[in-house]
Amino acid sequence: MKKYLILASLVLVFIPNANKESEEIIIPDEAIRFRVVAESNTIEDQQTKNIIKDVLEQDLIELLKNSNNINETRTILKENQSHFESLVQRTLLTNQINTAYKVNFGLNYFPEKNYKGVIYEEGYYESLVVTLGNGNGENWWCVLFPPLCLMEGENNNTTDIEYKSYVKEMIDKYL
Predict the structure, then answer these.
(1) What are the pLDDT digits (tens) for 110-120?
(2) How far apart are the first and last CA of the chain?
(3) Which of 29, 49, 73, 140 lies at a CB distance of 3.0 to 4.6 Å from 145, suitable for a disulfide?
(4) What is the pTM of this model?
(5) In what side-by-side order are the strands of the sheet with 123-132?
(6) Taking the domains of the chain in order of start, what are their residue ranges?
(7) What 8-state DSSP symbol labels residue 158?
(8) Which long-range CB contacts under 8 A does 75-83 form with residues at least 24 apart?
(9) Are 103 and 88 in contact (CB under 8 A)?
(10) Could you tell me if 105 and 127 are in contact, meaning their C-beta atoms sit under 8 angstroms apart?
(11) E-strand stretches of the chain
(12) Can you tell me the distance from the alpha carbon of 105 to that of 32, in angstroms, rounded to the nearest whole number?
């Protein structure tokens, strides 16, 4: 009988939660974003955007790896704006891409974005933005602080991850 009560309790706990939409992940007010805007939506311009994004992302991982708070992150970004400009210029030259660009750290406009069912409102956000050409193409963006996008870019050894099921653990424990 005890087994059935435990099983019934688990069902009652998890069924109401299964109907809820996934919990919204809200970017905190104290956040710094990173955005790369393509010249246009042509294949070439989107490839250029991705090249610039990849190079800057790897550089940012290294620069921000020891940053512990938003003020440290902000200082590093401000102090390295000319470095980012040089890096973009060098990357474009190396890839024989002839396009204008602008790098800005400060309050920058972001349009409304629906990502994984969460709507991020349009507005001006503290951010590092690289605009290629006139910036009329699709963009890529993420959050530098807290380091949401940089965690994805790190080369972590994912073979050490162990997946567990809370429900299975409870059933194994009590049944």
Answers:
(1) 888 876 677 78
(2) 11
(3) 73
(4) 0.71
(5) 101-110, 123-132, 32-37, 139-145
(6) 33-153
(7) G
(8) 77/32, 77/105, 77/128, 77/144, 78/105, 81/105, 83/59
(9) yes
(10) yes
(11) 32-37, 101-110, 113-115, 118-120, 123-132, 139-145
(12) 10
